Amino acid sequence: MRLNGAQALVRCLLAEQVGFVFGIASGKLTPLLHALSLTPPIGFVGLRHEAAGAMMAAAVFAGTGRVAVALGEMGPGGLNLASGAGVAFNNNLAALLITTNQHRAAAYPHRGMFMDMDTRAVFAPLTKWNATVTDGRRIPELVRTAFREALGGRPGPVHLDIAQDVLAAECDYPDDEFDVAPSRYRALGGPRPSRPSIDEAATLLCDAKRPLLVAGGGVVLSQAQALVAQLAAALRAPVVPTQMALGVVDSASPHFIGHGGLIAGDAVRQAFERADAVLSIGCRYSSWMWDQQGPLVRRAHRHVNINIDPAALGAPALHDIGIQADANEALRDLLAAVSSRRAHTEADWLPSMRQTRARYDDQLAALARDDGPAMHPAALATAIGRALPRDALAVYDGGHTTFWSNDLTPVHAVRTRFHDPGMSHLGFGLPYALALQLAHPQRPVFHLTGDGSFGFTLQELDTARRYQLPVITLIHNNEAWGIIRAGQRKQYDFEFATSLEGTDYAAIARGFGCHGDTVTQADQVAPAIERARASGLPAVIDCRTRFVPHPCMPAFASMNRFGFDA
In principle, which of 363, 443, 483, 514 could form an S-S bond with 400, CB 3.0–4.6 Å? Predict the structure, then answer.
């Protein structure tokens, strides 16, 4: 068959059941946009900034496990796309990023035309793999390689930089070229662990007096959350989900002691201090799980580490038993091995950790009862958590704001609460929430953010209106870069360039054709959410609050001292 490069590319995307392509209508992308316009199974979403596209592709993978595509025109479009690519890369989320470049006669090396850029070099540190495409006949091969790299082992974004004339040029392809199933060119399942390593791990964990389970994003990816709960019950152990594994255990579970490490209160810190054995599953121990000494798993711990990525075994946390395996495969075998042994867990181990968590919850509840003239952030976060429908999806954006959302938003299942712990890119939340609404059109989606963060991507309210995506944004509006102002005052007793006073975010929303509302008291939050849902429009609820440091700020500060304390 004879196809141009863009048509061949779209046929490859169909083979992988890609559902969404995000981007901006651009001149050099015209052949690809034309091909997409003739391919209804793939939805194209036109944005207001390319960075949002990379964030939205990351969100699709986080929320569904499916790969989406984000586009960037050559030069500045590619630079914009790169600024969002880190959200996918640092959080191990698969995405296919595609950029155009000059025609082949003027690229690699470039000849000085406007919009020249070595795009492959720009994206190399932000992707697992990338390549330039200079011959349309190689498009099937390179797209398959891209998906194999994106989904193999630890997931991540990949990038293809395609010369503009390659998209338009026609080539002959074998009649069966696009009938090749993904199972023919990439593995569809992860590796299973060896039997000796599982037996050794089961013995170590059952002999422990105070075992602790740490579940990371690998558990979510392999859909192994039920096995984590069963193993926790068998070992009578507390579970700490990382920020990439929110919902692995229900926040009402008798095994839950806090989400995401250092910002989750005393129970998590004490659990690591007291545990004599730690099982880590699909967790890479980012600095959310550190203090000033580094990873909370110490050399003194007996540590079993299960990860599909060999680079995550032994670094940054040492282990006694390292198992390279898919989380689901490993937990199935480990659960079977543990069930044939007797656990020696101390009777008061789990209850004592739960009691510590309960005291922390009481502390948060006391803060939420503050009735000062401006809402306490704990009161606002508590009101939001109580008002969310049980089937809601929620995205936590904003630097300090995420701490309150992390503690006070109930979580019942995986892939319902989302954060960006890897890049911590302020402003990722609205694009993320829009992508989740596209992927789950029947579920309510909420975006919980700060006023500073919201400013980075608020232009995507226009995207929300055009595509009728009724995401509800709730802004913790303290009219400042609050955590930065607090740091300035603490470090040098000054305040500079931190004010964000005077912006009416509800009015901005209405200017985009969305619903806008303002609340000043916690008891106004639930009615405002009901009004927003009744409008059927994308909505912004401007919640006037004040800055109060989260109780875990000292723990966060201890992480930042890593390498500085002797």
Answer: 483
**What's the CA gap between 327 and 215, in Å, rounded?**
10
Selection from 225, 237, 277, 169 nearest residue 414 by Cα: 225
Measured on CA atoms in the order 563, 564, 565, 566, is the torsion positive or negative?
positive
Nearest CA to 268 among 291, 250, 252? 291
Q: What is the mean pLDDT of the chain?
A: 95
**Exposure of 316 by Cβ count < 10 A (0-12 exposed, 13-18 middle, 19+ buried)?**
middle
Q: How far is residue 400's CA from residue 412's CA, in Å, rounded to a whole number?
A: 23
Identify which of 251, 519, 242, 514 has the alpha carbon closest to the alpha carbon of residue 390. Answer: 251
99-103, 128-132, 136-140, 363-367: range with lowest mean pLDDT: 99-103
**Partner residues linked to 161 by β-bridges:** 99, 132
pLDDT of residue 142: 98
Side-chain-side CA neighbours of residue 480 (13 Å):
18
Question: What's 136's DSSP letter?
Answer: G
Is-cis flag, bond preceding 316, omega within 30?
yes
Can you give the pTM of this predicted structure?
0.97
Q: Environment class of residue 21 by beta-carbon count within 10 Å: exposed (0-12), middle (13-18) or buried (19+)?
A: buried
Number of residues that this document lists for the chain: 566
Q: Find out whether 96 and 69 touch, Cβ atoms under 8 Å.
A: yes
Select from 248, 247, 267 the least CA-distant residue to 258: 267
Residue spans of alpha helices (H) in 94-173: 119-123, 139-151, 164-168
8-state DSSP, 259: S
Give me the residue label for tokens 């991540």.
Answer: 156
Task: Quickly count helices (H) and strands (E) in the chain.
Answer: 22, 21
Question: Which single residue is written with the structure tokens 């939340």?
Answer: 429
Residues in Cβ contact with 320 at an 8 Å cutoff, skipping those fewer than 6 apart = 204, 302, 303, 304
What's the rounded Cα separation, in Å, for the pair 261 and 153? Answer: 24
- What contacts 165, CB < 8 A, 6 or more positions away? 103, 104
Backbone angles phi, psi at 216, to 5 degrees: -110, -170
Residue 564 confidence (pLDDT) above 80: no
**Which residue in the block uniquely carries the two structure tokens 């069963």?**
230
**What pLDDT is recorded for position 559?**
83
What is the DSSP track for 453-512?
HHHHHGGGHHHHHHTT---EEEEEE-SB-HHHHHHHHHHHS---S-B-TT--HHHHHHHT
Angle between helices 401-408 and 377-387 (to 10 degrees): 50
Question: Which is it for strands 170-172 and 2-4: parallel, antiparallel or unpaired?
Answer: antiparallel
Give CA 352 to chain center in angstroms. 31
First to last CA, the chain: 67
pLDDT digits (tens, 9 = 90+) for 190-199: 999 999 999 9
